[in-house]
Design brief:
It is a single chain. Helices cover 81% and strands 0% of the residues. By secondary structure, it is mainly alpha-helical. It folds into two domains: 75 residues, Rna Polymerase Sigma Factor, Chain: A (Orthogonal Bundle), CATH 1.10.1740; 78 residues, Winged helix-like DNA-binding domain superfamily/Winged helix DNA-binding domain (Arc Repressor Mutant, subunit A). α6 packs across α8. Keywords: DNA-binding, Sigma factor, Transcription, Transcription regulation. InterPro entries: RNA_pol_sigma-70-like, RNA_pol_sigma-70_dom, RNA_pol_sigma70_r2, RNA_pol_sigma70_r4_t2, RNA_pol_sigma_r2, RNA_pol_sigma_r3/r4-like, WH-like_DNA-bd_sf. One of its GO terms (biological process) is DNA-templated transcription initiation.
């Protein structure tokens, strides 16, 4: 399939595919993103010499899988935010990018080792023992590196909650 086949698909079927994906996931933006990602993957697949017999079926399948991955990532993100002590009403209350920006800023401010431990524990979903083994430190050190920033973040994010309520 060449450029013409992709152009034809985009012209004739993209909008319908994105609407179908949007219905399965979290709205138009997610559906459109999933189909766009599927199109990119299809293009790369054909560039590597693999034939795609039915582009619409291939796009539907890959877009579905991309959408499921997005949902899984968001759920993991929400679990991580709950585990670091973000108040429940903030997990869905702040704009997602604003919330992630605040968490990223808090991580960046930490010493490198502390940031590594927190990211592995809360976002990588690794156990204390797994982190210790991965970084070559004791489980007690892992726990110590997690405790102080999480307590600080609870205070910091509590302030954010009050700031958000005043908007």
């Amino acid at each position: 399939m060449g450029e013409e086949g992709f152009a034809l698909y985009v012209a004739e079927e993209f909008t319908a595919a994105a609407k179908r994906a949007a219905g399965r996931f979290d709205g138009w933006a997610d559906g459109e993103d999933a189909v766009q990602e599927a199109l990119i993957r299809a293009w790369l697949t054909t560039e590597q010499g693999t034939e795609i017999r039915s582009l619409p079926a291939w796009i539907t399948t890959v877009a579905h899988n991309v959408g499921l991955d997005t949902i899984r990532s968001r759920r993991a993100e929400e679990r991580a935010l709950r585990r670091i002590g973000l108040p429940q009403n903030m997990i869905g209350g702040l704009d997602r990018l604003e919330r992630l920006g605040e968490v990223a800023d808090a991580i960046i401010e930490l010493p490198r080792r502390q940031a590594e431990v927190l990211v592995l524990h809360y976002y990588g979903d690794l156990s204390v023992a797994e982190i210790g083994e991965h970084l070559g430190i004791t489980p007690g050190t892992v726990k110590a590196l997690c405790t102080a920033p999480v307590q600080s973040w609870r205070h910091r994010f509590g302030d954010l909650r009050q700031r958000g309520a005043g908007r």
